[in-house]
Amino acid sequence: MRKIYLYAFFSFLIVVLAIGYFLVDSSQQAPAENDQSGKNIVYRSYDGGVGKAQWLKVISSYEACGRGELQSPINIEVKETIDQAEAAKLADQISLNYDQAIFAVENDGHTIEANATTAHNSIVIDNKEYKFTGMHFYSPSEHQLNGQYFDMEAHLYHESEEGDLVTIGLFIERGEENEVLAELWDEMPSSGSEAVRLLKNPINLQFLLPEQKSVYQYMGSLTAPPCTEGVNWFIMEHPIEMSDEQIKRFNSIFVQNNRSIQQLNGRDVYKFELN
């Protein structure tokens, strides 16, 4: 009888040790994120062991996140922007063509994505067209203005046929309810496991922008891996508003999903009015 008990004890001990080894081995692997398109995306986060400071170590294609010289976001110091006369030359080359768009909304685990299902909205720069593809949201803002963060920031993404990128950044501050984004906010998935939601009503992008369209322009990067450089940024000076309830709704899903401020490294920042 004693031999049976000893045999059972050692069998149990072997099973426990095997499970422990499996758990330790698994914890050392960077988990893969499940993308709804069926592709595996290497995990990234905004804190913890694979946080912003560790992005370049996750995969070789993320190297620009840690070693790039033209990274975003930046702090915009108004007094250091290029004079109006030179900036006006840039403004004459830009045309913003915004109208209504239908959006598919999803939570990718890092932000809320609103992807355009139509491709007729665009920005034209020096006779080159960049099609509007969608928008993401961040809290607090990613860019700073004179060292100050805003409550949130929206990024409106555009891409040319050659793959060149233009992004318009909108600061968001507490105020009146944003009726333009009301349905999108109501349909925001609270987790990445929820299905993509198609909005019933179009959003008029022209109504999303502030009335005064003075912008700060500079060359930067994507603010998330792979942190690709060569992105042409236009940051609207005047913020749009969202109600306290709308901002709290976003913060109930993402408490903080912004990237830290990056070094300017001698880049020029221009200020001018968009047409």
UniProtKB/TrEMBL annotation:
Its EC number is 4.2.1.1. This is carbonic anhydrase. It catalyses: hydrogencarbonate + H(+) = CO2 + H2O. Pfam families: Carb_anhydrase. SMART domains: Carb_anhydrase (SM01057). Keywords: Lyase, Membrane, Metal-binding, Transmembrane, Transmembrane helix, Zinc. CDD domains: alpha_CA_prokaryotic_like (cd03124). Coiled coil: none annotated. Residues 42-275 form the Alpha-carbonic anhydrase domain. Belongs to the alpha-carbonic anhydrase family. GO terms for molecular function: carbonate dehydratase activity; zinc ion binding. The keyword Lyase applies. The keyword Membrane applies. The chain crosses the membrane at residues 5-24.
